[in-house]
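Q: Here's a chain of 241 amino acids. Please give me its 3D structure as tokens.
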Amino acid sequence: MHYLALASDYDGTLAHDSHVSEEAHAAIRRLKDSGRKLILVTGREMPELESVFPEYRLCDAIIAENGALLVWPAEGREEILGEPPPEAFLTEIVHRGVKPFSVGKVIFATWRPHEGAVLDVIRTLGIEYHIIFNKRAVMVLPSGINKATGLAKALKRMKIAAGSVVGVGDAENDHAFLESCAVAAAVENALPALKERCDLVLERDHGSGVVELVDRLLADDLQSLGPRKPRKELVIQTVKT
């Protein structure tokens, strides 16, 4: 067995309209029964993820807040991978009437068309933050934090090489972590720009596409997949156990 883990985005990928289908739940269990790991890679904050995905403990690891929070469900443990937004930033956001918004352990999130106001606040305060888009969502994180950095930390702790990971996603914020996986897949409803960068574009959308990917993975460990596209971020390495 070469591919030891599946790293999946949540919204628009594993989930459709925030929820995971019974078909997708069954596929997750088949994946785990095969001895492979499931890593969820999401922009969501944990309280809202728990509210829409009560089965989150099926995941071996969760990279939440778009890479800023690493959660180990079996242990009930969290690792915060960045600093929270400065009070001056939040004060200015409120002053400028940006709403709705939410604040996690690290992430600040709002919606389009507020990206201009948010960027201006970052510039005005001179803080080293960046904006990441997820379709209509606007996420703000410290520079250097994204889904790829969070996934890398999880894999290091799990002693799994990036060359043994299959990733699947649908949107702009998935580019980084898919580039760090040995095989990058896109569900049918993914953005065209993401599909162009992936090794495999699935025939089905959302969770049904993840089911399709799991079935292919279990059938032949993706040996039938053709040549991979070059990965700028991928480092194939052997992890000592």
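Q: Can you summarize the key feature?
A: Confidence is low (pLDDT under 50) at residues 233-241.
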